[in-house]
Amino acid sequence: MSGRGGGGLSDERLRYRVYTAGLAVGVASLPVVWAFQQAHDPFVRWTYPFFFGVALFWLGALLTRRLPVARIERQTILGIALLFLSKYAYYFAFVRDLAVVWNELEATAWVFAFLMILFYLAFDSRAGLRYSVLLVLLAVLIGAMRLVPEIQQQRHQAEFLAWLRDVVRLGAMAALLYVFSNAKDRLAQAHQRARELHLLAHTDGLTGLLNRLGATGALEERLTAHQPLAVVLVDVDHFKSINDRFGHAVGDDVLVEVGKRLRDGLREGDEVGRWGGEEFLLILPCAEIEQTLALVERLQNRMRSRPFPGVGMVTASLGVAVHQPGESWWELVRRADDALYRAKREGRDRAVVAELKAGSSPAGS
Questions:
Q1: 351-353 and 279-284: which strand pairing?
Q2: Angle at 18 between CA 16 and CA 19, to 5 degrees
Q3: Catalytic residue set
Q4: How many Cβ atoms sit within 10 Å of the Cβ of residue 232?
Q5: What separation in angstroms does the CA of 119 have from each of 76, 81, 132?
Q6: Closest-CA residue to 278 (of 203, 352, 206, 198)
Q7: What residues are paired with 282 via a beta bridge?
Q8: Global pTM value
Q9: How confident is the model at residue 182 (pLDDT cuts 50, 70, 90)?
Q10: Cα(320)–Cα(165) distance, integer angstroms
């Protein structure tokens, strides 16, 4: 069990707050834009009330948690794309003099570029590419339907060249974003595989706890951080006789159950690993021996609380050692191991505290 955890907002909560704030701004600004532009811009007059209603619905869905954030995120991005595609098509189809609205068309082309970035953030690489290509093709089709016939009539030549530069830029950006997104996905997959291999290398295959390598690494990390801690070595009593009487499969079940009872009895921040065979290592962030022994007693009671399936009562011997200044991890574990053997010699089913290093004082004194 590990008490480590990152602080701060989770990715889901951060996205929730960002989209809530963004939609709140949209809901507040759309009526203002409509009020100032609806008199001279029919597109704004007829479409903005519709998109205001959609934005209000998405904001309500976020605030009431009726829809998952990822779904609203994708719907919002696609809705914005639909809004600006409609605006792009309206200007090309219904405005006689394109020079009057060309600044708006140029600004819309930049919005398309921004939307392609959002496609790759909200979707995987292939979906991002599909939506980006579709967006570019629609921009090409919309502009070509108006400008190609006119360029043949020697009209809007400057606008045609500017539009051509825009669509070429958008096409190049779609390709570059796909390359970068694909590389990012491959890097994320490689990182995930590395994490899985690291987890596999540091996890005991039987109990799912840390293995000896993982427990050693956790112990070294705690000592490097100069955290006060104690370690406890736990050895299942008479485990060889359990294997001899009931078989190794039952013995494995006992080890799994012992690991579960130890893990469930620990506090947040404690860690447990299988040290080898029937031995387990507990890493406890604690400097006071009394506090450590209280936890150890609770763990022993968990072991004795109910019989193990198919075996009956199983007990354990424990060796306890509190880290002393300047002590290495292997010296600390060796003292716990010495205490464990004393517990076994003294009759088992008990905990024994390790002797201090020569010249050391009891922790907390």
A1: unpaired
A2: 70
A3: 278
A4: 26
A5: 11, 10, 7
A6: 206
A7: 232, 272
A8: 0.55
A9: confident
A10: 74
